[in-house]
Write a structure and sequence with these properties.
mainly alpha, 176 residues, 65% helix
């Protein structure tokens, strides 16, 4: 059966309405605290799933140290978000809400279960898809995740040696 243009447009509008309704429902069930955005448990799961795909071998190989690395990364991302203007914090909050919402995660990301069950291949495929997507909005969302995660990771002085960064010049460092 060949789908007619009108049917395709109707289906697209219904899907968009469904995602918008789901986003509204998420906002009602998870109201944002006034003021600054803080990462909730669902955002932690998103970051924990994305970290191995973005950081690869930079993460520790052993499970306990890897978990400590991811926990440190989540704290760094939270710190980076706290330094953004409130309007940008709201955009980051919307991004994490979208990634947490099951229908949006399924349609836009391609992950059917929760983030805890997502395979490394699924996460890598989603990131690659968003990185090269024809819609600039998804490319921007990928870049936001990329910059937040890598900025938080390499903003930590413990990871500078791995990339050969000796640290700031002494004359630029604040005096003790």
């Amino acid at each position: 059966m060949v789908m007619q243009r009108r049917s395709f447009l109707k289906l697209g509008l219904m899907a968009a309405a469904g995602v918008a309704a789901g986003g509204g429902l998420y906002r009602v069930l998870h109201p944002a605290a006034p003021g600054r955005f803080t990462l909730d448990g669902e955002a932690h799961l998103v970051l924990a799933a994305i970290a191995p795909a973005m950081l690869g071998s930079a993460l520790a190989a052993t499970e306990p140290q890897r978990n400590a690395d991811i926990a440190s990364l989540v704290r760094g991302v939270q710190l980076a978000i706290a330094g953004l203007p409130l309007a940008q914090q709201q955009e980051v909050q919307d991004l994490f809400a979208l990634l947490a919402l099951a229908p949006a995660r399924r349609l836009l990301v391609g992950i059917k279960g929760g983030w805890g069950e997502a395979s490394a291949a699924q996460v890598a495929a989603f990131l690659q898809d968003w990185r090269l997507h024809r819609f600039a909005t998804l490319q921007t969302a990928y870049l936001a995740l990329h910059d937040l995660m890598l900025g938080a990771w390499y903003g930590d002085a413990r990871h500078w040696a791995a990339i050969g960064y000796p640290g700031p010049l002494p004359e630029l460092s604040p005096a003790p």
